[in-house]
Design brief:
By secondary structure, the protein is mostly helical. The protein has helices spanning 3-27, 41-71, 85-107, 111-115, 136-152, 159-175, 192-198, 216-220, 248-256, 261-264, 268-274, 276-290.
């Protein structure tokens, strides 16, 4: 099948999948009352999903994998080349998922690697888009290890878009705010009921439920946590136990050097930068409301930030 046609098919499937997940989040929500345009929605959509993904794709494939492929002749190791495409996809799906499980466990054990992963846990309101919030370093490591073997081992070109599609579909599914039960299948395939607990702010799950696609790894290695009930609907039940920056660039800076946003807000230039996005959104909301009937319900407006809670240092849970 031509690559362009395959990309069209995978893109169509992904769009339909997104529509289905969003619909299920509205119909059978796991956590009731969660707004579609929840806190951090635009950061996750614009910066993490669109901008970061676009540039990191170029960086990983063109500046890491391509030079390695060019300078090292690994043609003799292309043992997957003659396998059926379905077998190739399954092989890389399982092996990479096992790697992700093991590396994910390391990230929760190591203070260094936790700095590259805490962004993923910073959201207090988890939904289908939350899976895209990942530190640049984390994405570079994981996607290089994911796609380099596919290319270097001579896999069919179709494997890359198919694998990328499955990654996206699983990522949205396990982070989706969906109250779905899969019976005994949950011991093999990862589900929202298991992974959403991993995003809860409880010590019990900080070292549990690491699987991405196959929950089998957690059950096999004894890291599964399934109490049979939801974490809770309050903000303190979710995300991190300490304050985390809301801005994309500050989130990356925070992984290098801890800082208190309340102290930075005393600088006028920083306050202007920090409030730039909320201010622009306020202007857009005002322009939009001019054409709305007065009887319409008020639209939630993002408030400008003036004070924030001092961050609590809880890195001792890494030990």
């Amino acid at each position: 099948m031509p690559q362009e046609k395959l990309l069209t098919i995978t893109t169509t499937i992904l769009v339909l999948w997104i529509i289905m997940i969003i619909t299920l989040e509205r119909i059978i929500p796991y956590r009731k009352g969660l707004k579609f345009f929840r806190e951090g929605f635009w950061i996750d959509l614009v910066w993490y999903t669109l901008i970061q993904s676009y540039f990191l794709k170029i960086f990983i494939f063109d500046y890491i994998i391509a030079p390695v492929q060019h300078h090292f002749n690994w043609s003799a190791t292309q043992f997957v080349k003659d396998w059926p495409v379905a077998v190739q996809v399954l092989f890389f799906l399982v092996t990479h998922d096992l790697y992700i499980y093991l590396f994910h466990r390391l990230q929760h054990r190591s203070k260094f690697f936790w700095r590259t992963h805490e962004a993923h846990h910073s959201g207090k309101e988890v939904d289908f888009l939350s899976g895209s919030r990942s530190h640049i370093v984390e994405i570079i490591i994981n996607q290089t290890i994911e796609f380099a073997p596919i290319i270097l081992l001579g896999a069919d070109p179709a494997v890359v878009p198919i694998k990328a599609l499955l990654d996206a579909m699983f990522g949205m599914f396990i982070h989706g705010n969906i109250n779905v039960r899969m019976g005994k299948l949950k011991y093999i395939i990862n589900t929202p009921e298991l992974h959403l607990w991993h995003h809860a702010n409880y010590i019990e799950v900080f070292h549990a439920n690491f699987a991405t696609k196959f929950a089998l790894w957690d059950h096999l290695f004894g890291t599964a946590y399934d109490p049979g009930h939801a974490p809770g609907n309050e903000r303190e039940n979710w995300g991190l136990g300490y304050e985390y920056p809301r801005d994309y660039f500050l989130q990356h800076a925070f992984s290098v050097k801890r800082f208190d946003e309340t102290k930075l807000l005393k600088y006028r230039w920083f306050e202007r930068y920090y409030n730039l996005r909320p201010a622009l959104l306020n202007i857009l909301f005002k322009l939009w409301k001019k054409d709305e009937p007065k009887a319409a319900n008020a639209v939630h407006k993002p408030e400008l930030v003036t004070t924030l809670t001092t961050p609590q240092r809880q890195e001792e849970i890494l030990q």
